[in-house]
């Protein structure tokens, strides 16, 4: 598989062309390309560029979502092969929208961007009780618990998750990061969260920083 | 000046005798039932409370409260806002568009959990969907009578809240994520849904506007195009995929002769020029916590051509600030937005259930006591 063909995977993710992203990945794997090369040299750099374009306000949510969909299409083909080889992800993240809140899209997008950044992401969905965050984080061996809330009335549930972690005796095992429209750095500090991110792309930078890992690509 | 004259003066960029204030005039400037009950207890009112609009659990604001704060607006009935057609065993409901909503917390919002056109869909699926009948008499039942009654019994500005806009309705039908994916990845499907929803919306709204007739002063159309950090879509996507629908919508509103109030949450500073071109008289809710929504800048750049309606921060100050901080917030918004008219004061969006009654009282007391127009004489009586 030539560099030029592999470049098509990068472009397909950037333009949100799922069909091409999947076809190029299939062809590359069939030709014996190392799956880790596909991830580290094509997928992660593509999603990093998507994040940069989002930060520069060239991309907005629709472009971000189609790119994430194309990336996931390709990643689904590669993931079992990585697992077979025992290749560890950048980090493990358990993510969800807190109890009382049904907002899905912001949380899903952060999850996609983290996956695109090489993290293994377990998405617990919306309206997630504090105890479930704790139990799943322990079960998954997570490094990071990521919480989303879009309402002033539900962001207080984030504190409940931290309280539940303390009660379960596992606060120091996990980094807790939070985000969502009404959430601020000051709020993160006030409840003792480890980090706050204002956007999906900066969530990846934050997660890498908290785990002390460098960005690929 | 009557309450109505005060609102219309402000919307016409004339200096009123005091800043007009709104509570409950629209579906986006009202109060959640939980906050409302606390407010009533605080004020010593013991009447039973009633939910006016189910989706966001908005209270019917009673005359005692409206008079207590000398509110300048009155709302016409909200007859076309996600009406429950079927109550579900879990306490949720299905509305006339087929959207299923669930209320995760008592007195909280009903959020969409069932989107009837979600996932992989074809144009035929859109055509075959069970669409609401825009001729349903329920959409205008009692509207003409209530509009006449409000005009006769009060001297307030009457506002007609039109159905939730086509963008939101399409998002609820497809689900937000699928709708967004369509925008960038399946334009035919996006347009099929938007065409259908917009044409039904225009028919329902035209009937409501006609029924209310000359007894309505302000029309509210709400459809969010802003997010916390910026507009929902790029400039070019707004122009290609959203503005054409809004041209049809604002065309109908402008022809009515009533003032046009447009509600979009979020950071919309880059789109205000478009709203002005489209004929918007006033922008609500002026979400001051969103990026670039600095009220001094908004007034300076756009204040000659558009009025502002809202502006008192509900993200941070109203729910978590002290009454003193609320008073400072009110003074700041008055200082920024009120000069020369062009401002109706209320909270950014509905007062949510955690807003303490002391803060609500502080907001209205401060606005009513303000001498922002000082010794200036009103331009008309």
List the SSEs and their pairings.
The complex is a heterodimer of chains A (217) and B (381).
Chain A: H1 3-15, H2 18-30, H3 35-55, H4 61-84, E1 92-97, H5 105-116, E2 120-123, H6 130-140, E3 144-148, H7 157-167, E4 175-179, H8 185-191, E5 195-196, H9 200-211
Parallel strand pairs in A: 1-2, 1-3, 3-4, 4-5
Chain B: H1 3-11, H2 33-43, E1 51-53, E2 58-59, H3 63-68, E3 73-75, E4 84-87, E5 93-95, E6 100-102, E7 111-114, H4 123-128, H5 143-153, E8 157-161, H6 166-174, H7 176-185, H8 187-212, E9 218-222, H9 235-255, E10 259-263, H10 272-278, E11 282-284, H11 295-302, E12 307-312, H12 317-320, H13 323-337, E13 343-347, H14 357-369
Parallel strand pairs in B: 3-8, 8-9, 9-10, 10-11, 11-12, 12-13
Antiparallel strand pairs in B: 1-2, 4-5, 5-6, 6-7
Helix pairs in contact in B: 2-14, 6-7, 6-8, 7-8, 8-9, 11-13, 13-14
Descriptive report:
The complex is a heterodimer of chains A (217) and B (381). By secondary structure, chain A is an alpha/beta fold. Chain A folds into two domains: 3-84, Methionine synthase domain (Methyltransferase, Methionine Synthase (B12-binding Domains), Chain A, domain 1); 92-211, Cobalamin-binding domain (Rossmann fold, 3-Layer(aba) Sandwich). Chain A has helices at 3-15, 18-30, 35-55, 61-84, 105-116, 130-140, 157-167, 185-191, 200-211; strands spanning 92-97, 120-123, 144-148, 175-179, 195-196. A five-stranded parallel beta sheet of chain A has the order 2-1-3-4-5, sandwiched between helices. In chain A, helix 1 runs antiparallel to helix 2 and helix 6 packs across helix 7. The longest helix of chain A has 24 residues, at 61-84. Chain B is of the alpha/beta class and 381 residues long. Chain B has a single domain (3-31, 70-83, 142-369), classed as TIM Barrel, CATH 3.20.20. Chain B has a seven-stranded parallel beta sheet with strand order 3-8-9-10-11-12-13. Chain B has a four-stranded antiparallel beta sheet with strand order 4-5-6-7, with no helix packed on it. A two-stranded antiparallel sheet of chain B has the order 1-2. The longest helix of chain B is centred in the middle third of the chain and has 26 residues, at 187-212. Chain B is globular. The mean pLDDT of chain B is 95. The interface between A and B is medium-sized, with 29 and 32 residues.
């Amino acid at each position: 598989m030539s560099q030029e063909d592999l470049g098509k995977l990068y472009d397909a993710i950037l333009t949100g062309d799922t069909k091409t992203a999947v076809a190029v990945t299939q062809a590359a794997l069939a030709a014996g390309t190392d799956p880790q090369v596909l991830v580290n040299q094509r997928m992660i750099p593509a999603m990093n560029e998507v994040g940069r374009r989002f930060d520069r306000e060239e991309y907005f949510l629709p472009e971000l979502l189609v790119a994430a969909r194309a990336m996931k299409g390709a990643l689904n083909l590669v993931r079992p092969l990585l697992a077979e080889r025992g290749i560890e992800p950048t980090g493990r993240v358990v993510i969800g929208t807190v109890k009382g809140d049904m907002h899905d899209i912001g949380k899903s997008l952060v999850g996609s961007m983290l996956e695109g950044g090489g993290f293994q992401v377990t998405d617990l969905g919306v309206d997630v009780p504090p105890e479930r965050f704790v139990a799943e984080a322990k079960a998954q061996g997570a490094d990071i618990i990521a919480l989303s809330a879009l309402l002033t009335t539900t962001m207080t549930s984030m504190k409940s998750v931290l309280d539940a972690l303390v009660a379960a005796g596992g606060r120091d095992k996990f980094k807790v990061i939070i985000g969502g429209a009404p959430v601020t750095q000051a709020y993160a500090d006030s409840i003792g969260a480890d980090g706050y991110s204002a956007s999906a792309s900066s969530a990846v930078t934050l997660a890498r920083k908290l785990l002390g890992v460098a960005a690929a690509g | 000046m009557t309450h109505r004259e005060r609102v219309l003066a402000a919307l016409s960029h004339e200096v009123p005798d005091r800043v007009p204030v709104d509570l409950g005039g629209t579906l986006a400037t009202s109060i959640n039932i939980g906050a409302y009950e606390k407010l009533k207890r605080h004020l010593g009112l013991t009447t039973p409370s009633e939910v006016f609009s189910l989706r966001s659990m908005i209270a019917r604001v009673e005359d005692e409260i409206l008079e207590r704060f000398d509110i300048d607006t009155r709302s016409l009935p909200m007859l076309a806002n996600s009406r429950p057609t079927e109550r579900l065993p879990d306490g949720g409901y299905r509305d006339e568009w087929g959207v299923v909503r669930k209320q995760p917390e008592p007195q909280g919002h009903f959020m969409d959990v069932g989107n009837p056109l979600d996932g992989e869909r074809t144009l035929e699926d859109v055509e075959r969907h069970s669409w609401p009948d825009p001729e349903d008499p329920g959409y205008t039942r009692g509207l003409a009578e209530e509009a006449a009654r409000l005009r006769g019994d009060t001297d307030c500005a009457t506002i007609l809240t039109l159905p939730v806009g086509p963008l939101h309705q399409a998002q609820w039908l497809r689900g937000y994520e699928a709708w967004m994916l369509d925008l960038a990845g399946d334009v035919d499907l996006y347009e099929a849904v938007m065409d259908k929803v917009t044409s039904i919306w225009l028919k329902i709204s035209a009937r409501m506007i006609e029924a209310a007739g000359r007894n309505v002063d302000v029309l509210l159309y709400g459809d969010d195009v802003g997010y916390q950090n910026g507009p929902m879509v790029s400039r070019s996507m707004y122009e290609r995929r959203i503005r054409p629908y809004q041209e049809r919508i604002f065309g109908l509103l402008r022809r009515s002769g009533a003032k046009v109030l447009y509600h979009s949450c979020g950071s919309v500073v880059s789109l205000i020029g478009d709203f002005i071109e489209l004929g918007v008289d006033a922008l609500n809710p002026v979400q001051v916590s969103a990026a670039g929504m600095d009220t001094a800048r908004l007034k300076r750049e756009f204040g000659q051509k558009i009025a502002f309606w809202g502006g008192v921060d509900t993200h941070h100050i109203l729910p978590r600030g002290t009454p003193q901080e609320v008073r400072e917030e009110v003074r700041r918004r008055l200082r920024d937005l009120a000069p020369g008219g062009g401002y109706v004061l209320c909270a950014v969006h509905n007062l949510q259930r955690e807003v303490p009654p002391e803060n609500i009282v502080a907001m209205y007391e401060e606005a009513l006591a303000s001498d922002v127009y000082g010794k200036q004489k009103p331009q008309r009586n």
